[in-house]
Amino acid sequence: MPKVKSLPRGVAMVGAGMSKFGAFAEKNSRDLFVESYKAMTKSVDKGFDPSIIDAMYVGNFSSDQFEHQAHIAPILADSVGLLPIPATRVEDACASGGVALRQGVMAIASGMADVVLVGGAEKMTALNTAAVTEALATAADVPFEIPAGFTFPGFYAAMASAYMAQYGMKSEHLMNVAVKNHDNAALNPNAQFGVTIQKWMEGRVAAALKKGKPAPTWANIWDFLHDESGNPTIAYPLRLFDCSPVSDGAAAVLLVAEEIAHQFTDHPIRIIGSAQASGSALHDRPSLTSIPAAKTAATNAYEMAGVSAKDIRIAEVHDCFTIAEVIASEDLGFFAPGEGFKAAEDGMTARNGAKPINTSGGLKAKGHPVGASGVAQAVEVFKQMRGQAEARQVDGDVSLALTHNVGATGSTCTVHVFERRN
Amino acid sequence: MKEETTTIRPFTAAAFNQYLAEHKLMTVKCSKCGGVYAPPRAICPKCHSEEMEWVEASGKSKLAGFTIIYSGPTFMVEQGFDKKNPYVSGIVELEEGTFISARITGLDMSKPAEIKVGTPLSADFVEFGEGEAKKTYLAFKAIH
């Protein structure tokens, strides 16, 4: 295992913004990226001259498949007026954004750049669901996993089945994660699904009545979530509300060398841990109930930052499926193996819990435009750490936060640790 | 007369699939450290040796994780699978100690909660298509 090196130069995040996530027929990835860039520039307290940006890294999984547009980095740089700076697209499936962030950190830490724009963008909804599922499936180990019939919901469902067998979890326990993330997204104006599951259910009843159809008679959200017509099975044991949606969206953050951060803001967020690890196909792992690359990335990020799991106040984790959030909460060391689902049930990961997870609504409810997700996680911690998360702001001091971004079933994982010093 | 030689097939997906077409599930074994792998590898990830050999697996195995898929990729739809006719994909632990992804047959999909991780399995080979387009897929059958 490579030795964890400390950052040779401090790196700070001084601006962060995102587009609204959702399904936007009239917008392509560059339109969404422009929105996120404008939101980012507004967030820089003292303003800045964009001509000082030295380089740009952008996370994008597959504009080639989704938009029939490859080579998107210079196009995105041009769209925000940043030519001729070097612009590089980074692809590691759904971890593309987290890896782009890490590239930005390394560019500044190395001294090769002082100011770096890190973006993430994905436009997925131009394809139908079946085509999106197939595009995403190219992130698997195609010759050896796909002939088995696996889809991405299927992979995580298989992990869930193993977790259930090992720890006695019921698939119903996973609903707690979905309910919590929808509760958070309902307070996030940029979320794709900015509604609680209660409101969602009421909407379904109202829509049926409006059409003159018999209204469904769900007694409460749990009844709704157990009902095949409310919450259909996608890949047993996972149902619709266990899955993140197909999304369009973009996010952007501005990283600068720590010694010049004061020129941009009096409240910079330092990135003190940055780690990335790679893993095998799902079948090549000793266990299906943990992601080795996530554990390695977490261990290394904590070591670089000089902190431990218990020090982290909030975390944005990669909940592409509800089971993924449970496993992440264990891989990151927040809870012991087999305890993550109980922590979610007990409200420990809620906004007012001991370890709030995915205050943004997570991939599940905020949306998952895959290449943007890892960057959007950094946007959320930027807001929470600076007390700017409005209705979803957690109580108390958020001086340490973490982001965890996974590619495929864990073939890539990045973990970043953020610090606010008063 | 051509001399008979034993050709070692390359450690590739194509060779693995060629073996499947012959109804053989092959693993790759490291001659140096004894590590056994499926799917094939040309370099041992444990000791970095490049001395690998093909070894046929017994097919005796058990279910490590599974899912019932109601909405599959196009090639599965073409093979007749859909919401009304779902299929099981699984991660299988071979008795040789390595794991592989495969289709699983012989399970009662109408009672998914009764499907047990750990169910004993045997290797099976499922063919689809005809002539040039014929393809053999690895499957495992539940032993009841």
Topology readout:
The complex is a heterodimer of chains A (422) and B (144).
Chain A (H helix, E strand, L loop, with lengths): L10 E8 L10 H15 L11 E5 L3 H5 L4 H8 L7 E4 L5 H14 L5 E9 L5 H9 L4 H4 L6 H16 L7 H11 L11 H14 L10 H6 L6 E4 L1 E2 L8 E10 L11 E10 L13 H14 L8 E3 L5 H10 L8 H6 L16 H5 L3 H16 L14 E8 L4 E8 L3
Helix pairs in contact in A: 4-15
Chain B lengths: L12 H9 L4 E5 L5 E2 L14 E5 L4 E9 L4 H5 L8 E8 L4 E7 L14 E9 L6 E8 L2
Parallel strand pairs in B: 6-8
Antiparallel strand pairs in B: 1-2, 1-3, 4-5, 4-7, 5-6, 7-8
Would you mind describing this structure in some detail?
The complex is a heterodimer of chains A (422) and B (144). Chain A is an alpha/beta fold. Chain A is built from 15 helices and eleven strands. Chain A has a nine-stranded mixed β-sheet with strand order 3-2-4-7-1-8-11-10-9, with helices on both faces. In chain A, helix 4 crosses helix 15 (370-385). The model of chain A has no long low-confidence stretch (mean pLDDT 97). Chain B is mostly beta strands. Chain B is built from two helices and eight strands. In chain B, strand 7 (120-128) and strand 8 (135-142) form a beta hairpin. The longest helix of chain B is centred in the first third of the chain and has 9 residues, at 13-21. Classes of the chains: A alpha/beta (422), B mainly beta (144).
